[in-house]
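Researcher: Here's the sequence for the chain we discussed earlier.
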Amino acid sequence: MLRIRVLTALVFVSVLFWCVSFSSHEIVPVLFFMIGSIFAGAEFIAMRWHVIDGQAATERPHPLLKREHWGIALSYALCIPIEFYGPKLLGQPAGLGTSIVFAWIALTTICGSAFFYRREIDLEHSTHKLMNVLAGFVYVSIPGVIMLKLSQIQVDNAPRGIALYFALACILLGDSGAYFVGRAFGRHKLIPKVSPKKTVEGAIGGLLFSAATGFLFCIYFMKQLSPVWGLVTALIVGAAGQVGDLAESALKRTANVKDSGSLLPGHGGMLDRIDSLLFGVPLAHLLFLSFHH
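Model: Thanks. This is the structure I predict for it:
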């Protein structure tokens, strides 16, 4: 299983690396992040509606993905091209992209309200579904937009996309560190009701791996930035990544499913692979903007 996980992760990272750093058309990374948002969004809304519809009583490997889930996920993914191409199409300054995204979220919510409240008899049931659709924009769409924005931050004398790779390395190597340290030294459960296998020792080990990754990244790949800045930033981003992992574990436990989906061999669903990034990348973006620019 570990070999399959590693192989899947390598393929995933390789495709990401090509899309961000080597593709000659700017639409390629946009499409890459859109595809990721579609799968993650469909898995998120499927899990939440799985609970709302009362289907979480029986444990399943993963929730069933239905046509309506994909439709909502598409509305999540469209936030990415709207952010980057909306202002140009409307003849507005590029800085208005975020405002156009929020207008899209509002429009989608209004249309969703009309749809749910006309179709459903139970008002409370409809409201719960609608609020979870809205939550998906915050949980999936906005981090997806920020992930692409982070990949576009330029660091002097460093490869294209280095800011995103920094965040990914700190989070993913921190996750690996937590796994191996937890297996070797884990004694005290972290939050057993959410994730029974995670330990305090593993969490601390993961933070140490993240910190070391950030420190070394600045020494070898981002020499314009202080290694101390890299260490501190990596600690913050790594901690946020661990919280993101726990948050998705709570979603799965509530839905009584093992994985969010079955897309990625050895990992489960797309959401299982990027759960840590959804919390860690936005903080990395903020810290890069605050201290690099």
